[in-house]
Structures are given as C-alpha cells and as structure tokens.
Design goal:
single chain; about 300 residues; Rossmann fold; four-stranded parallel β-sheet
C-alpha cells in the first residue's frame, strides 16, 4: 500500500503542537489587518492570535485571501515527487473558493503523475470542526486505512461533524455584513448572543438568539445533548477567539454531563477570526447527520 500524506490548511485551526502530533502539513493562509499583511501560521510566528484579537477589538478590520494554485501545486507536488500520494482536507466550499483551487490543482497533478493518487476533499467544515475531521483521518490512516478508505470515510461522515458556536460581539457581525446595524444595536442592548451552526452545504446558519453570555454557552451544550452520539468515547474539540474562560466553561460542562475525557482546545486563528470577531466559543463533535437533524 502506497504511503500518503494528509494536508490541510490553517482554517482548521490546528495548533503547532497538534500539527506535529498528527504529522500533517498545514498550508497557511494570508490575511490582512489594517494595512499589515500576515500568514496564518500554526505557530503564530507572524502574529499571535491574542495580538490579532486585540487589534480587532480596537476596531481594525481584517480581510482574508484564498490559497492560490501555485501554492497548492508546490505543496502537493513535493510529496508526489517523493513517491507519496496526497489527501487534502480543505476549508468548507460554502465559505471560501480555496477548495475549488485545490480541485483544479489535484486534477492537473493527477494527469501529470498517473501512478500517484492526489485527492482534494471538501470537509464542509471550518476551525476545529475541520481540524477534528483531520484528526479522525489521521487515526484511520494510523490504523492501516488506505487513502481511498480515508477519503471515503471523510465524505461519508463530514455532515456528522457538528459546529455549535456563539459570538460575543454583534458589532463585528455588523461590520462583516452578517446583520444590520439596527439588529446589532438592539441585540447589544438586550444582551443577545447568537448561536450558530453549519448546514449540510457548509454554510453558517443562525439557530438561536440567547440572552446572556453564560446562557449562550449553555446552549452549545444543550444542542450537544440533542445531537451527539456516543459522546463519552469521543475526542471533543473546542476553539475560542481570545475567550479561554468561556472555552474552559464549556469543556467543564461537557466533561461533567457526558463523561468526556478526551479534549483538545485551541485558539480560533485570524482567518476564521476575521469573520467571527473576539469572544467566540465553538464546540465540535461527531453526532447525528446535520441535514437529517435540521429537517427533523
């Protein structure tokens, strides 16, 4: 069986420690804040997530850029030339055109290296939801699964990856054009905290409008009660944007209620954070199929 390399991008929000632990390659994405341009490295060598969110909190705006064809070609080809197949697990196509670029490159390189396999898979996920699918892919690979078996597992289970998250600052959603100025003002006055999820096409959708920060964090856990399967035996990922206290509260609730023992926690990187703002807390786990659950 041919060896294969799992590749992802920095929207997976895997920390440098997790990247090294899993043995994956993480392609950093480019972003700007104010007039400064940075790369979203897992080791935060360009800018720390804390410094990024400090600037966001001060009102600076941030924009992000897709990974280009040349970058995908360089990364994929170095493994193909070394005799390895490549499995890329990418950022949701519902949020970015990056995945489409990876498909173009994968098809081109498959023709150039007919003896090798190079697959690009749309995770329909983001942040540590994408990261958790990468984690599962590595576990399958280490258990002896082939590149085709891992690809198929991701495609069959990606809509079981739940993303429940809440944001603390409605004004950031207003700046991003997600809600109107009037809605942001009224929501802020009433202490409204939106709780959001991903639909089966990888788009962000609003589920609940909760009054109060603690109540919104509790709502994440309540949704896990309704949609999780075999939670106690799972690896659970939690990410946050400069809200360690909120993330730790959710971790404690999940551990107490579900008996979960395996967690990974980490910051939401600047590429995702450019759209969510400061104070976001997100909970990720495998559960019921997202589409079926929403229809139900």
């Amino acid at each position: 069986m041919a060896q294969f390399q799992i590749v992802t991008d920095s929207t997976s929000d895997l920390t440098q420690e997790m990247v090294e632990e899993l043995g994956v390659e993480l392609i950093p994405m480019n972003f700007t804040i104010g007039t400064d341009s940075f790369m979203d490295y897992a080791d935060e060598k360009d800018i720390s997530s804390h410094d990024f969110y400090q600037r966001i909190a001060q009102g600076e705006s941030s924009t992000t850029n897709q990974i280009g064809l040349a970058v995908f070609t360089e990364v994929f080809e170095k493994y193909l030339q070394a005799g390895k197949d490549v499995l890329y697990l990418g950022f949701s196509s519902g949020l970015s055109g990056t995945y489409n670029n990876s498909v173009i490159v994968a098809r081109s390189l498959a023709e150039k290296y007919p003896e090798r396999k190079v697959y690009a898979v749309d995770t329909l996920a983001a942040s540590l939801g994408e990261g958790l699918l990468v984690w599962h892919a590595v576990q399958k690979q280490r258990a002896g699964a082939s590149i085709d078996e891992v690809r198929d597992w991701i495609e069959q289970n990606r809509n079981r990856m739940h993303h429940w998250f809440t944001v603390d600052d409605l004004n950031h959603l207003k700046r991003g054009g997600r809600i109107s100025g009037a809605a942001a003002l009224m929501g802020t006055m009433l202490g409204i905290k939106p709780v959001m999820h991903f639909d089966d096409e990888g788009h962000i959708i609003l589920i609940d409008k909760i009054r109060g920060r603690k109540q919104s964090l509790d709502d994440l856990v309540n949704h896990m009660k309704k949609t999780s399967e075999d939670a106690s035996g799972q690896m659970i990922f939690i990410s946050h944007s400069d809200s360690q206290e909120g993330a730790e509260y959710v971790r404690q609730q999940v551990a107490e209620i579900f008996g979960v023992e395996q967690f990974r926690m980490g910051p939401i990187g600047p590429v995702i954070g450019a759209h969510t703002g400061t104070g976001t807390v997100a909970l990720f786990y495998l559960g019921k199929d997202r589409e079926a659950e929403q229809k139900g």
